[in-house]
Write a structure and sequence with these properties.
Layout lengths: L1 H7 L3 H11 L3 E6 L12 H5 L3 E6 L5 H20 L2
Parallel strand pairs: 1-2
């Protein structure tokens, strides 16, 4: 699994181009104390999306363990809004 992280980096420009071209509604829920995927890595997504909802939670890499209910509620609210 850790080896896959290294190969993902070369794919980032392709993903960013797809985001810019297709502009999918996007929900970002990120742990501000994540030492694997730092909060600084979350902010650039906002530059590629016109329709982005951004939440930086006071947690680390395993945000679902601490904030599972909060994240699930954010997902449900987001999906309800974009599917109107």
């Amino acid at each position: 699994m850790f080896l896959d992280y290294g190969t993902n980096v070369t794919e980032y420009p392709k993903w960013q181009a797809l985001f810019r071209e297709h502009q999918p509604p996007t929900l970002i829920v990120w742990g501000k104390n994540d030492h694997i995927f730092s909060a600084e890595g979350a902010h650039p997504y906002k530059a590629d999306h016109d329709d982005v909802e951004f939440h930086l939670l006071d947690t680390g890499h395993f945000a679902l363990e601490e904030y599972g209910g909060v994240i699930a509620a954010e997902m449900q609210d987001f999906l309800a809004r974009i599917n109107k």
